[in-house]
Design goal:
The structure holds 2 protein chains of 2 kinds. By secondary structure, chain A is of the alpha+beta class. Chain A has 2 helices and 5 strands, in the order E-E-H-H-E-E-E. In chain A, a hairpin with a 2-residue loop joins strand 3 and strand 4. The longest helix of chain A has 11 residues. Chain A is globular and about 25 Å long. The N and C termini of chain A lie far apart (36 Å). In chain B, helix 8 packs across helix 9, helix 11 packs parallel to helix 12 and helix 12 crosses helix 21. The radius of gyration of chain B is 27 Å and the shape is globular. Chain B is 29% helix and 23% strand. By secondary structure, chain B is of the alpha+beta class. Chain B is built from 22 helices and 26 strands. In chain B, the strands form 6 sheets. A 7-stranded mixed β-sheet of chain B has the order 3-5-1-12-9-10-11, with helices on both faces. Chain B has a 5-stranded mixed β-sheet with strand order 7-15-14-13-8. The longest helix of chain B has 28 residues. Classes of the chains: A alpha+beta, B alpha+beta. Chains A and B meet through strand 4 and strand 5 of A and strand 7 and helix 11 of B.
Chain lengths: 81, 754
């Protein structure tokens, strides 16, 4: 089980819940689970997000492992100039 | 898992960290380098774009018959010449060619291709557009009001509870933070709350957008031009034109600056659509006025910041609300502003709420650390005020509240190894910080942060038959990256720098590469280059083993030679790269290495700036008398280019702080679309920007590299603001801090005092 924190713009799709406890082991499992449980997240997930696992930020990395007890943040897809 | 190599950890790198000449230098100073506008093709036509004179208008009809009938006109296009596109590309399409409504002054409504510029200009005049002019709004705070003219009639704010039911110009609400700010403010002895405003600025790259495109009746197409990401151009244009990605080949020219402004498309798809219709190559080169009016400036913003502290300088709570307008489309970088706002502080109670607002302005584009400078100006100004209120040194105040490895960032994740504390300590020890100030001068200090990221990256390395090396990368060189790639490859191979050459390959030569942005190229393309070099070294060791008749594992590589790895491997003279390469045909064929990766592990970076500014009390004119940048680079591959990034970011930030602004008239039209009236600092305006590189290695890169290109633009607005505020004795809360604005502030204060 991991604690997943969503950034504020996503909470409209999760009945206001910003923190979720999920049984997921990879980024792909996380994204699939989010889309299944909260279909209204689908447009944002399609647009892209970043996922921070224990402080390390990943962009588009489906198979990045999520260790048991990890701290996960779903953040906007990183951009830069 | 750390990727840092032992020799990087031990400080034993031989070539990385030196300052050789850049490989593209002679071409650039002699004029031989080819930029976007230098592209030519037989039978090439001139493209021109008709742009809306109105800030907001419904397009009732466009009549192109007279233009099409003009002799020398070969094609005229409008929105009707583009078909349906994937939803993810709709805003891009509607920005490069208005569909139904012109959303800002300068919005493209039609385009022509003609035999020369004169005919193209005449043709534009013959296109008749029937507009129904609509009310407009360009100010971010006015646009956020519920009764503002609506830019999209169906836009409902996302991220609000309960869900929005009434359309507005606010596309999204973003929130970051943790703890309880209410509780934190209750614990505070002193609270400062202020609202700050920043105007939009432009990246100001020297080279206007210029593209040559050719599309034949067989559907094969090519583009040549300046961009930060030719793979992005290829994929976006293929999507907009409805063609296969593999049929479009894009070659990136040398680039006369980008700074984030060339991370999307503007004229590229228009060029291709014109070429498809005319069946001739077409080139469009933007004028400077078009660059200002129709490419992406930054957001303008209005930001409220509230910070509470104890008497001994500990921050108990920090709260911010950000309003950024991103032009007529959703997508201002307000979420990144909200994430970066308080990143320089370790906080128990923090919240940042960002509102993404639409206005009748050009769609914003990224500009170095997009979204961060505006809010950091506000935060660093309040921090400065608080430090002064408790009579505490502003660097000590920041040190007392600075995050270290393992601390939770204000945007959520915990930090890995970071160098803010070391950078602040270096700032305090720098001679600049203790130098005396003259009359009417003030000294400001500010810290700043940016994320950096890795991304999709490919690299090829080919070994020539003389043992020299060619590196192909897919990331346009906007900051000296070819020199850095050569240094990293030379380090891996153990050969001199001048035996390595790096090129930027076209889109047909390598797999997909993300755009040159996010301060990612030295990190990502460097990582791929190092891995490619290691693959080639592995192959050369294999060839040497075959030549010597020993196992591969018995061969080592060092200083450009394959060597038997020990006494049991046999007694063989080392084989040089040149010797191995010369025998390649007889030992198995050409020798190469390649690597493809979506690389993670880019380290965040922090910078601290010290600014001295003198204000003329009679005119409000500002003079930057001394400026110093200190920043953690992880590891500076080529220190001169790292220093160049520090200096360039600082100068752009100083311009943003002091003079640059988009000025709109009541009619919603931009009043200063040229470098005469949009005042950017030039070399003669500024002192030499002093720099100090701090190196706290990033464990995610073999040599410890962090991105360095964006962070330097984050602190200057705050550093300059704090210096100006000290010089005039009044807190400055708006940019630009131009002479009229400062003079008005000082005059009002004097009048009030009298």
């Amino acid at each position: 089980m991991v604690k997943v924190v969503l950034w504020g713009a996503l909470t409209h799709a999760t009945n206001g819940e910003a923190e979720l406890d999920l049984d997921v082991r990879t980024v792909k499992e996380l994204l699939t689970r989010l889309e299944t449980d909260y279909p209204a997240l689908a447009p944002q997930l399609k647009k892209g997000v970043s996922v921070a696992i224990d402080g390390q930020i990943y962009r588009d990395a489906w198979f990045a492992p999520i260790p048991e007890g990890a701290e996960v943040f779903v953040l906007p897809r990183m951009v830069g100039g | 898992m750390s990727r840092l190599t032992e020799k990087a950890r031990d400080g034993a790198l031989k070539q990385v960290g030196t300052r050789p000449l850049r490989p593209d230098g002679i071409d650039k100073v002699t004029g031989r380098a080819r930029f976007g506008a230098d592209a030519v093709a037989p039978g090439m036509l001139v493209g021109k774009i008709l742009r809306s004179p109105h800030a907001h208008a419904r397009i009732k009809a466009i009549d192109t018959t007279k233009a099409e009938a003009l002799s020398g006109v070969k094609a005229v296009i409008t929105a009707d010449d583009f078909g349906d596109v994937d939803e993810s590309l709709t805003d891009t399409l509607h920005n490069i060619m208005a569909h139904g409504k012109a959303l800002y002054e300068g919005h493209a409504v039609a385009a022509v291709a003609a035999v020369n510029m004169s005919v193209a200009r005449q043709a534009l005049k013959l296109i008749e557009v029937d507009y129904d002019v609509l009310p407009h709004v360009t100010d971010v705070e006015e646009a956020a009001q519920p009764d503002a003219p609506l830019i999209r009639e169906d836009l409902l704010t996302v991220g609000v509870n309960p869900p929005a039911t009434k359309p507005s110009n606010i596309s999204a609400r973003h929130e970051f933070g943790h703890g309880d700010v209410g509780k934190g403010f209750a614990e505070a002895d002193i609270i400062v709350e202020r609202t700050f405003r920043t105007e939009a600025t432009h990246q100001g790259y020297i080279e206007p957008h210029s593209w040559l495109g050719s599309m034949g009746p067989d559907g094969q197409a090519e583009l040549w031009g300046c961009t930060q990401g030719h793979y992005m151009v290829r994929d976006t244009c293929a999507g907009l034109l409805g063609i296969d990605v593999s049929k479009l080949r894009v070659t990136a020219s040398e680039i006369g600056g980008g700074f984030g402004g060339k991370t999307t498309v503007f004229v590229e798809p228009v060029v291709l659509a014109l070429s498809r219709k005319a069946n001739r190559p077409v080139k469009i080169t933007m004028s400077r006025e078009e660059v200002f009016k129709a490419t992406g400036p930054t957001s303008s913003s209005a930001n409220r910041v509230k910070i509470g502290i104890t008497k001994d300088g500990r921050i108990t709570a920090a709260d911010a609300e950000l309003f950024y307008q991103g032009g007529a489309f959703p997508g201002s970088p307000v979420e990144f502003g909200a994430m970066a706002a308080f990143a320089c502080y370790a906080l128990e109670n923090v919240r940042a709420v960002g509102w993404d607002v639409l206005a009748n302005r050009p769609k914003q584009a990224a500009y170095r650390a997009p979204g961060a400078p505006m809010i950091v100006f506000a935060v660093e100004s309040v921090i400065d005020e608080l430090a002064r209120r408790i009579d505490m040194d502003p660097v000590d105040f920041r040190l007392k509240n600075a995050p270290k490895e393992g601390d939770r960032s204000s945007y959520g994740p915990k930090f890995g190894p970071i160098g803010l504390i070391q950078t602040l300590e270096a700032a305090k020890a720098h001679p600049h910080y203790s130098a005396p100030l003259g009359p009417n001068q003030g000294r400001g200090i500010a810290a700043g942060f940016w994320f950096n990221f890795g991304g999709m990256t490919c690299s090829n390395i080919n070994i020539g038959n003389d043992g020299t090396v060619t590196i192909a990368v897919g990331t346009p060189d906007i900051g000296g990256s070819r020199a850095s790639m050569c240094l990293m490859a030379a380090e891996e191979f153990g050969i001199p720098y001048d035996r390595v050459k790096a090129i930027v390959a076209d889109t047909s030569a390598l797999g997909f590469n993300d755009v040159t942005d996010g301060s990612r190229v030295t990190f990502s393309s460097g990582y791929a280059t190092i891995q490619s070099a290691r693959a080639a070294i592995g192959e050369m060791c294999k060839r040497a083993a075959q030549i010597w008749g020993i196992p591969e594992e018995a061969v080592d590589w060092s200083d450009g030679h394959a060597r038997p790895s020990g006494p049991n491997a046999g007694d063989f003279e080392p084989l040089s790269m040149a010797e191995i390469a010369a025998s390649a045909a007889r030992t198995g064929g050409p020798i190469a290495g390649h690597h493809e990766v979506n690389v993670d592990g880019a380290g965040v970076s922090f910078g601290v700036h010290i600014a001295d500014v003198e204000i003329d009390p009679q005119t409000g004119r500002s003079t930057v008398t001394r400026y110093t940048v200190l920043q953690d680079a992880g590891k500076a591959i080529h220190p001169a280019y790292v220093e160049g990034q520090y200096q360039g970011g600082a100068v752009q930030g100083i311009g943003w702080a002091l003079n640059e602004e988009y000025i709109y008239g009541e009619d919603g039209r931009l009043q200063n679309a040229g470098f005469l009236d949009y005042r950017m600092p030039v070399a003669s305006d500024l002192p030499m920007i002093d720099t100090q590189i701090i190196e706290i290695p990033n464990e995610g890169h073999p040599y410890g590299v962090r991105g360095v290109g964006e962070t330097p633009i984050v602190p200057p607005l705050g550093a300059i603001g704090n210096a100006v505020s000290q010089a005039i004795g009044l807190r400055v809360t708006e940019t630009p801090m131009s002479p009229p604005r400062l003079l008005a502030m000082m005059s009002s204060y004097r009048e009030a005092a009298e």
